[in-house]
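Bumping my old thread because nobody answered last time. Still need a sequence for this structure:
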């Protein structure tokens, strides 16, 4: 495989950090996303401007929104309803007017000033969210949850009739402050309690202010400065499962730019449970379980069947190692997760191939993983799987070297722990 050093160019761009300064992209921060600048660079290196692009793991829509800006149609498939809605809110930029949002924000401000009564919290099967004297821990202090539900009920009350298009926009603004006013932070694979969380409190009014401030300083500003000439890709953002949904696309695709979940046992349903449960997507464990199953196999939060996997030497040896009896793993489901991940990624690659034009390119941003001192070279393995399925791997661009846990780092060569962009071409 042709591994090329692109660290100088891509190190920052494979992260969401640059987007935090970019209008519209900055409406909600997403650690697992990449930057609009990366997408622009990849599009700009095409010989011919693509007509239609696909992102099978669309997240909060970085590829879709960048394509809109560049005048390109884009289909974006996303399994998580909160992320799909976040992508739609941004893609729908043509529908918002500065006057419309400003008027709503002023009305919200007036209504929120009057909110000081008892709040009716929803019935959530998970009891971890709300403060209760019988519990040791809770995710929201009483004043924070009151502030959050004041906002939610006013959004629902005010965004009716002609203003209904603003409801998802305002809800995304609320989503963008949820973590801050909670007692937890995103700690890689899970949510952990902040240090001194018991004494760090937001008052109900401070929660309102934070939300209004985000709208005034970020959202209204971006709507005001919007050039007005993006292609509208809103209806091409599909809430669905790429393992099936790609096959249903009728158009021929020219270009794919994507980043699938990494093989790092991160369950998005867990890491984004504040957004999913508080904003009304989930209220029962059964729904949460169903949501977990909608994602590509890449974590061990649900039982995983033992499935076959593509015949690639690096994968054969990784699985033989992980399945050998003397290897200690922190979860016995890991070998089946690795099998499932590559089994499903092969199917995604096959369906992408069936929809892509000849010589069409696919860019996959992914990182390698390590379990029990065994590096799984996900970039090389995916490239070889693609070559078994009608693609040529032009190169693997190494974007940055990534850290592994301290016990593993002495045993694992850092050159193997890469985050890369795999460049494929349909032959
Ligand atoms: C690494 S993130 C992509 C982030 C995206 N590039 C962005 O900038 O917003 C991977 C995404 O794949 C989604 N996903 C996981 N399984 C999926 C599936 N089977 N079909 C569609 N999307 C899926 C996850 O919910 C997550 O949003």
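Sorry it took so long. Here it is:
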């Amino acid at each position: 495989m042709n591994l090329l050093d692109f660290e100088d160019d891509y190190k920052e761009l494979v992260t969401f950090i640059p987007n935090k300064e970019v209008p519209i992209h900055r409406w909600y921060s997403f650690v697992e996303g990449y930057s609009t600048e990366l997408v622009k660079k990849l599009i700009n290196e095409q010989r011919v401007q693509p007509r239609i692009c696909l992102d099978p793991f669309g997240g909060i829509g970085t590829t879709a929104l960048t394509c809109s800006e560049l005048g390109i149609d884009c289909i974006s498939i996303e399994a998580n309803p909160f992320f799909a809605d976040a992508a739609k809110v941004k893609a729908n930029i043509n529908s918002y007017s500065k006057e419309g949002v400003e008027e709503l924000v002023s009305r919200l401000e007036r209504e929120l000033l009057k909110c000081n009564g008892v709040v009716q919290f929803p019935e959530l099967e998970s009891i971890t969210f709300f403060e209760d004297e019988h519990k040791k821990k809770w995710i929201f202090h009483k004043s924070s949850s009151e502030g959050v539900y004041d906002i939610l009920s006013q959004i629902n009350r005010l965004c009716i009739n002609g203003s209904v298009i603003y409801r998802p926009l305002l809800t995304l603004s609320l989503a963008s402050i949820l973590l801050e006013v909670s007692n937890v932070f995103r700690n890689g694979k899970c949510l952990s309690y902040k240090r001194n969380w018991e004494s760090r409190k937001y008052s109900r009014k401070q929660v309102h202010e934070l939300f209004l401030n985000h709208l005034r300083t970020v959202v209204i500003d971006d709507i005001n400065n919007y050039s007005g000439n993006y292609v509208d890709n809103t209806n091409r953002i599909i809430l669905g499962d790429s393992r099936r949904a790609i096959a249903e696309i009728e158009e021929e695709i020219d270009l794919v730019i994507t980043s699938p979940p990494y093989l790092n046992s991160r369950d998005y349903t867990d890491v984004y449970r504040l957004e999913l449960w508080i904003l009304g997507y989930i209220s029962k464990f059964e729904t949460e379980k169903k949501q977990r199953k909608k994602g590509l196999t890449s974590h061990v939060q649900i039982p995983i069947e033992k499935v076959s996997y593509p015949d690639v030497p690096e994968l054969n040896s990784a699985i033989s190692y992980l399945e050998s009896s003397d290897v200690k793993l922190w979860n016995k489901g890991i070998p089946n997760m690795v099998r499932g991940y590559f089994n499903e990624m092969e199917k995604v690659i096959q369906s992408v191939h069936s929809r892509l034009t000849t010589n069409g390119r696919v860019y996959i941003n992914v990182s390698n993983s390590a379990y029990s001192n065994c590096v799984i070279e996900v970039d090389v393995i995916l490239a070889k799987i693609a070559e078994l399925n009608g693609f040529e791997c032009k190169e693997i661009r190494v974007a940055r070297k990534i850290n592994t846990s301290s016990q593993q780092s002495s045993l694992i060569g850092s050159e193997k722990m890469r985050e890369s962009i795999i460049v494929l071409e349909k032959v």
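The chain has a mean pLDDT of 95. Let me know if any region looks off to you.
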